[in-house]
Specification:
Layout (H helix, E strand, L loop, with lengths): L7 H11 L4 H8 L3 H9 L19 H9 L33 H11 L5 H8 L3 H8 L14 H4 L4 H13 L6 H4 L6 H6 L3 H36 L1
Length: 235
C-alpha cells in the first residue's frame, strides 16, 4: 500500500513557515504546484488553514529536512511508518480446506436446527457452501442425510465465533417480534375479565359466612342451656 501525505496544504504551510526549503522541494513533497506554494508563502492562498507539523505525525524526520535544506536538489522522502496497517482482504467466497469439506453438511445441519433465522446466503458465507446443498439438507434430500449429525461449525474450524455471532445478530434484526400464540399465552376478552372477581374478595366472603354460622350456633347453645337448668330445678 503506497504511503500518502496527510493534509498536503497544511503540511506545506508548516514547511514554508518553519524551514528553508525551496518552493520546488515543498511542492514535490506535498504534491502541489510550485506557484501554489509561492502563493501560500505570499499569503494569497490557503488562508485560514493551520499548519501541520509532519515531524509530529511521523511522516518526516528532522534529519531529512536538514539534508534537503543543505542540498536544493534533494527530494524529501516520507518516513517509514512505525505501525503497518494490513490491507483489507477482498471479499469473496470463503475457502474451505479439503480436509474439512466433508464436515460442511454436518455444520449446515447444525446451523439449520439451532439458528433457523439464518438465511441461505448467510450460511453460505459461514461454511463456504452452495444454496443447493443447503436446500437439500433442509428438505432431507441430501445423498448422505441418514448419516449426518449436527456439529458446531466453530468447533469444526469452518468459521469463527465472531463471524457466527455477527450473522446471527444480522438475522435477528430483521426478524419480527414473537406473537402471543408463539409465546404460549393468550389474552382474555374484556367480558371475561369483567366477570372475574378478585380472589381476596372471595376469601373474605367465605370467612364472613363461616363466622356468621359460628355465631348463630353459639347463640342457640346459650339459649338451650337455661331451659335445661329450669327443668332440673322443678324435679
Amino acid at each position: 500500500m503506497a504511503q500518502t501525505l496527510l493534509m498536503p496544504k497544511a503540511t506545506a504551510i508548516w514547511l514554508v513557515d518553519n524551514t528553508a526549503l525551496s518552493f520546488d522541494q515543498i511542492a514535490q513533497f506535498c504534491k502541489l504546484h510550485p506557484l501554489e506554494v509561492k502563493a501560500i508563502a505570499d499569503g494569497e492562498a490557503a488562508q485560514g488553514i493551520k499548519g501541520l507539523d509532519p515531524i509530529s505525525t511521523g511522516q518526516l524526520s528532522r534529519d531529512e529536512i536538514a539534508r534537503a535544506e543543505a542540498n536544493p536538489n534533494h527530494k524529501l522522502k516520507l518516513s517509514e511508518p512505525k505501525v503497518r496497517v494490513p490491507e483489507s482482504k477482498r471479499r469473496g467466497p470463503r475457502y474451505t480446506p479439503v480436509s474439512k469439506r466433508q464436515d460442511r453438511p454436518n455444520a449446515i445441519l447444525w446451523l439449520v436446527r439451532n439458528h433457523p433465522e439464518l438465511k441461505d446466503a448467510q450460511i453460505s458465507r459461514l461454511v463456504g457452501t452452495t444454496k443447493s446443498t443447503i436446500e437439500q439438507i433442509r428438505e432431507r434430500t441430501h445423498w448422505n442425510s441418514a448419516n449426518l449429525a449436527p456439529m458446531d461449525p466453530v468447533t469444526l474450524g469452518l468459521c469463527s465465533q465472531i463471524d457466527l455471532d455477527m450473522e446471527v445478530e444480522k438475522a435477528a434484526k430483521g426478524r419480527p417480534l414473537p406473537t402471543a400464540a408463539e409465546l404460549g399465552a393468550t389474552l382474555q376478552s374484556a367480558q371475561e375479565t369483567e366477570r372475574l372477581t378478585p380472589s381476596y374478595e372471595r376469601e373474605e366472603e367465605k370467612e364472613k359466612e363461616i363466622d356468621a354460622d359460628a355465631v348463630f350456633r353459639k347463640l342457640s347453645s346459650l339459649r338451650s342451656a337455661p331451659k335445661d337448668e329450669e327443668e332440673d330445678d322443678q324435679y
